[in-house]
Structure formats: structure tokens, C-alpha cells
Amino acid sequence: MTDPIADYLTRLRNAVAAKHRVVDIPASNMKKEMTKILFDKGYILNYKFEDDNTQGNIKIALKYHPQSKVPAITKLTRASKPGLRKYSGSAEMPRVINGLGIAIVSTSKGVMTDKEARNENVGGEVLCYVY
User: Fold this and answer.
1) What Cα–Cα distance (Å) separates residue 104 from each residue in 18, 92, 101, 126?
2) Where are the beta strands (DSSP E) in the chain?
């Protein structure tokens, strides 16, 4: 697999489009950190890391509105690709829908949202946009 983060986002996108409750994704440290951010910001209902002495899996419970069944995640977009990396300094960190969405950024201080990176005054690689 050439781009595991794009695979992660595509699996989430496909599960939301098919209205699945739970999605299984092969685990990595980067994917685990991204999952924690999505949970903390309220885009997913819950998650569980399953370790089977090899790669392991991430079970993600997707979040939907109780009455209208509208998913919490409406759009997932990959920003930085293997062929064209996208880096941003702390001053020019992107705002997603004027602050309503989040950008997940890989910095020297770990994986965090665009707002946290601005507060920490660090730049890094913009991985994806979520709203």
C-alpha cells in the first residue's frame, strides 16, 4: 500500500456513505492518533484498538444524528499526498470552513488539529481536512 492515510480516509468515507455503524481499519500509530483526534472533536462515536500480535485493527463506531440519520462526518479530504506534500507554518495554518471543520496536522510535537498547532506555534504537514 502506497498511502495508508488515504486508505484510512477512504474506508471511513465508504462506511459513512453506506451508513455502516462500525468500520474496521488496519492499525498504525498515525491512524491511532488521527482516530483519537476524530473522537475528541466529536466526529466519531467511539473507537477500540484491537491488538492481535501483528498489525492490529481499529474498530470505529460512526456517529449519526438520532432522528435524521445524518452523519457527523460530511466530508473527508486528503490534503498532503505522497506525490505532493503540503506543509504549513503556524502563521499560515489553514482554516477549514472558517473554523467549523478541522485540519489534522502532523507536527514535530505529534499529530494535532490546526487550532492546537496555532496555539503551540508549530507548523507541519497538513494530512487531511474533516468537516
Assistant:
1) 24, 14, 10, 6
2) 22-26, 44-50, 57-62, 76-78, 87-88, 102-107, 110-113, 124-130
Return the SS3 of 15. Answer: helix
Q: Which three cell numbers stand for residue 34?
A: 488521527
Q: How many CB atoms lie within 10 A of CB 59?
A: 15
The pTM of the full predicted model, rounded to 2 decimals, is 0.94
Beta-bridged to residue 102, according to DSSP, are: 130
Per-position b or e across 14-53, b if 16+ CB within 10 A of its CB: ebbeeeeeebebebeeebbbbbebbbeeebbeebeeeeee
Which spans in the chain are helix H? 4-17, 29-40, 114-120
pLDDT tens sequence across 79-121: 999 999 999 999 999 999 998 999 999 999 999 999 999 999 9
For residues 56 and 130, give the distance between their C-alpha atoms in angstroms, rounded to a whole number. Answer: 25
